[in-house]
From TrEMBL:
Cellular component, GO, one term: cell outer membrane
GO molecular function, one term: copper ion binding
Signal peptide: 1-23
Record-level GO BP terms: intracellular copper ion homeostasis
Lineage: Bacteria, Pseudomonadati, Pseudomonadota, Gammaproteobacteria, Cellvibrionales
Record's keyword terms, sorted: Signal
Source species: Congregibacter litoralis KT71
The keyword Signal belongs to this UniProt entry's keyword annotation: yes
Coiled-coil intervals, chain numbering: none
InterPro entries assigned: Autotransporte_beta_dom_sf, Cu-R_B_prcur
Name assigned to this protein: Uncharacterized protein involved in copper resistance
Length: 249
């Protein structure tokens, strides 16, 4: 009992100190967390998802699909560019998107901005409203609605999945579907689902940032879009062996 009388005052002092310390902690903050200081960190990334050449019995093609962003964890500025054409010739399609992106839930961003089509002609400028993220089973998803300066509404959905065979070998199935809600005959686009691309690519990572790949791609046109292409003497179905490079910085 004598020892208790000596310890009791010390216990009281520690209790008061602990109570005072917790009074200054932000609500919901674990006591072992450091207080946030400074502004959110800004980062940048550039990804060349596809830089490839395709080889078909009738036509040899090239494709690029590049995107990059700058910003923090929640808010970012995105640049996206993609296009394609016949080897040895100027691009048949080429576009650039400038987007503001906001993370609204884990793994999901909504995006808004502008898309400029440089090919085909006549050029089109479109308002963009997009949704990008990761769906269950880790499929990467990128979808967008476009409203052109001619008042035409169209949509695009892209999905891909990385199947890790080993630490260096990755097999990637990929799908892209394009649709239009109104006809734009001037650029050869009909109403409804107008084109799709299914691909299967096998890449080898010499480093995380550097991965050449080989694969196969099936491209198809549908409906009036198919008829417009046929009238112009263009192929409506292309099955290609592809060789390319994936890079990120």
């Amino acid at each position: 009992m004598k020892h208790f009388h000596h310890i009791a005052p010390l216990v009281s002092v520690l209790a008061v100190a602990a109570t005072t310390a917790h009074a200054y902690e932000p609500a919901g903050t674990p006591p072992d967390w450091d207080s946030p200081m400074g502004k959110p960190m800004l980062n940048a990334r550039l990804l060349t998802d596809r830089m490839e050449a395709g080889f078909d019995d009738e036509i040899d093609t090239y494709v690029w699909d590049v995107q990059g962003w700058y910003g923090g964890d929640r808010d970012r500025l995105w640049l996206k560019s993609e296009g394609e054409g016949e080897q040895g010739k100027s691009p048949e399609s080429a576009e650039l998107q400038v987007l503001y992106s906001h993370l609204f839930s884990p793994f999901w961003d909504w995006q808004v901005g502008v898309r400029q089509d440089f090919k085909p002609t006549p050029n089109r400028t479109s308002f963009v409203l997009g949704l990008q993220g990761v769906v269950p089973y880790e499929f990467e998803w990128d979808s967008a609605l476009f409203v052109s300066d001619e008042g035409n509404l169209s949509a695009r959905v892209e999905a891909e999945y990385d199947l890790n065979i080993t630490q260096r070998w990755v097999l990637q199935p990929r799908m892209e579907v394009n649709a239009a809600f109104s006809e734009d005959r001037a650029i050869g686009v009909g109403t409804g689902v107008n084109s799709s691309e299914l691909g299967l690519r096998l890449r080898y990572h010499f480093r995380r940032e550097f991965a050449p790949y080989v694969g196969i791609s099936w491209e198809n046109l549908y409906g009036d879009t198919k008829d417009f292409a046929r009238d112009e003497g263009e192929p409506t179905t292309i099955t290609s062996v592809v060789v390319g490079l994936r890079l990120w910085f």
